[in-house]
Write a structure and sequence with these properties.
The structure is a homodimer. Chain A is about 45% helix and about 15% strand. In chain A, helix 2 runs parallel beside helix 4, helix 9 packs across helix 10 and helix 16 packs antiparallel against helix 17. In chain A, the strands form four sheets. Chain A has a four-stranded mixed β-sheet with strand order 1-4-5-13, with helices on both faces. The first copy, chain A, is of the alpha/beta class. Chains A and B meet through helix 1, helix 3 and helix 8 of A and helix 1, helix 3 and helix 8 of B.
């Protein structure tokens, strides 16, 4: 469009109208190259927040964001290439056992991950708690490892979807984050830039998640599936319960240790369940197996040591100390202090508020309040008591793992932790983490 | 508020909530001093555009804008001080005869006016077509003239409502102009800064006006009255018809000439009617007279030469050539060329689209597309045929007055002018310009 005037397009969206492909692409290009001023971008973001984008607009917007930067070309890799993305939970370490388990079953997993922010953790931070492990690999090395091992886990480069980085930073300071089309296009533009064939979306629902209701979660999944459809990529959305934390650990090194238990065929039941179910959907998208057969393939890869061995090779290839798979407690950093949190009364754990537990872990140093903060890889929480467990008065429900901190930080984390437990008279019915699967 | 975070307040408004006084004042202060970045201001403006402000928020927002700069103190002037504000029309020269007529009746008129933009004209541009006339007077001189003569007409200084100037510039490029609370607070903050006791608002309604429906016009008036009420100032709103242009001239010097006709007791009926009706409301607010008695006072001031004499003294005091009141055609700049626009068929003028006529005058040099443009004081349109007039084929309906222009500019203006006339079979019923008065 020769006569593109941002304010005219902002007006159209403000009044609930449809933006043409050219207008949407002009905005995304202008965000990436800086030619549209921030004040016009933020007015448009607010108008999109309040008026929405239809499926066509959404697909164009996401495609423009995707093509604002580099798109990896993994076409030389013969195997199907399927990634998993989680909208972020507390204690969500699933990528660590999942990627090698799926790769061990013949589906390549080119995984570009993020860092933790706020009460949720990030895969990159967890991996970096393994001494020597690097998530900064050149694209050629990433491609080579995906081809040779079947998986590789790296961080997002500055050249992937630069328009998203610009818009995300603006959304953060203009109260336009929690918009389904803006979230969906942000995630999908980065995931499609990996050069994948298909994606499994783990959409967390509940108190500890970004989406607190199942209706909003379904809307988000539908938006991401619409973007995937328009790009010719299949997206399976798995809605999973995010009430109590996943597994029994929160914190980077602690979660790596627990992931290795899962890779040894053990680990907490919910953590293994998520790995098996999400892995089975990835195998289905990769055309390797589906349903119970796919679940059995993933379970076997966990039980027969093939996934663990692959994880060891991955750690080795990414510069980490591969002895971690056999002696995690020796290799991983340990917190200087373990402060017990004691049950104030006897009872059965009937509910756990994972958001508060995530915030407590953050206060202990496991997470970051701002992007620029450093994390303490050894910090976090060991959850001794989990849903349905009986505790006696004065018995530890959890241990806070931390370094030298101001005592008020530890006290606040302890208060948040004890407050996050509901000690009732009876155990809740054991529930699957899986709420529904949208294929 | 020690912990004011703009994004939290933007979120509140985005979700349709109420902003606290402190939050509103912090935004306006941040706009004036530059401490809140443009992208947050524009996100807030869009949220206000789509979610609105309630009466309390509106009053606080307007009060904060008013106090972002200087507020004139006219308390030394004993007479009641009443101003008139028009939302802007085509051919709207009413301020010129109105201010001296009202002042001649004993009510002081401290008038701070604006310049024309787009298809509507501005009082300052009209006054400046009088050779030597200056609208840039120091505040002390303005106050002195209001006291001595009863009226003075100046331009807005940079020190009046600086937050409004900042926000207005942002609104212009972020499609957040046409918002009732934002328009109302912008106008009222500037008017209340004049130190007036009361205000008559001439709210134009129709094709040539900013408010095209009477419902929207009523909403705007209600918002401005709410702001006035909160500030302890009475506001009378007069809704007036803005279909055909006001009077028979559009353009700066042409409108001054027509205003002088009104000040001589003549002039087009609608132009005199508006002067008398708006003047009567100003006298009522000033406590001098009301109803028919007030109308008679204004009419007498126009008919007995007292308003004209006062206008001459005003021109003299503001540096202009006061001979203009007796020999306007000699004193005012004349256009080099008068291009007739001929009727394509015989008929009676049944409708005139004033927006197109305003745009035609702009193309001839009478107005500005951008704030920085210069105007040609002699340019404009003389409307030979007006509502209800019979025209024959080939007879001029209007003359385009202009200097040396590219021929396509004159052709476009001529096409707009002829297209603005509806030539029907019968004359429309003569209608008053006054639609309703809200006191």
């Amino acid at each position: 469009v020769s006569a593109f005037l941002p304010q005219l397009s902002i007006r159209t969206k403000r009044d609930g109208g449809r933006l043409a492909d050219d207008e949407l692409r002009a905005f995304v290009r202008g965000a990436a190259d800086g030619s549209i001023p921030d004040y016009q971008l933020s007015a448009l973001l607010m108008a999109i927040f309040l008026r929405g984008l239809d499926d066509r607009e959404l697909a164009t917007w996401a495609d423009a964001m995707l093509h604002s930067g580099d798109v990896l070309d993994l076409s030389a890799i013969a195997r199907p290439k399927v990634d998993k993305h989680s909208t972020g939970g507390v204690g969500d370490k699933i990528s660590l056992p999942l990627a090698p388990a799926v790769a061990a079953c013949g589906v390549a997993v080119p995984m570009v991950s993020g860092r933790g922010l706020g009460h949720t953790g990030g895969t990159l931070d967890k991996l970096e708690s393994i001494p020597g492990f690097t998530v900064d690999l050149p694209v050629e090395r990433f491609t080579e490892l995906v081809d040779r091992l079947g998986c590789c886990l790296i961080g997002q480069t500055a050249r992937i979807a630069p328009a998203d980085r610009k818009l995300y930073a603006l959304r953060d300071v203009t109260a336009t984050v929690e918009s389904i089309p803006l979230i969906a296009s942000s995630i999908m533009s980065k995931k499609l830039a990996e050069g994948i064939d298909a994606l499994v979306l783990d959409c967390k629902v509940g108190d500890g998640a970004f989406m607190t209701t199942i209706e909003r979660a379904r809307e988000l999944c539908a938006a991401m599936q619409a973007i995937g459809r328009a790009a010719g990529k299949r997206v399976t959305a798995v809605l999973t319960r995010m009430d109590a934390p996943i597994g029994r650990t929160i914190g980077n090194a602690l979660e790596v240790e627990e992931s290795i238990e899962v890779l040894r065929g053990g680990g907490p039941a919910d953590t293994r369940e998520l790995t098996v179910e999400l892995g089975a959907e990835m195998l289905a998208l990769g055309g390797v197996a589906s349903g119970d057969a796919a679940r059995a393939r993933i379970a076997r890869a966990l039980d027969d040591g093939s996934a663990l061995a692959l994880f060891g090779r991955l750690v080795e290839a990414q510069g980490g100390d591969a002895r971690v798979i056999d002696r995690p407690r020796e290799v991983l950093p340990r917190a200087k202090t373990r402060t017990p949190v004691l049950a104030p009364a006897a009872g059965v754990v009937s509910a756990m508020r994972s958001r508060d537990l995530g915030t407590a872990a953050l206060l202990l140093g496991a997470g970051r309040k701002r992007t620029a903060d450093a994390v303490d890889p050894s910090a976090g929480i060991e959850l001794v008591a989990h849903l349905g467990d009986r505790v006696e008065r004065g018995q530890p429900v959890a241990f806070l793992c931390h370094g030298d901190l101001p005592s008020d930080a530890v006290e606040r984390a302890a208060a948040l932790t004890i407050g996050a437990y509901d000690l009732g008279g009876s155990a809740p019915a054991p529930l699957s983490r899986i709420l529904e699967v949208l294929r």
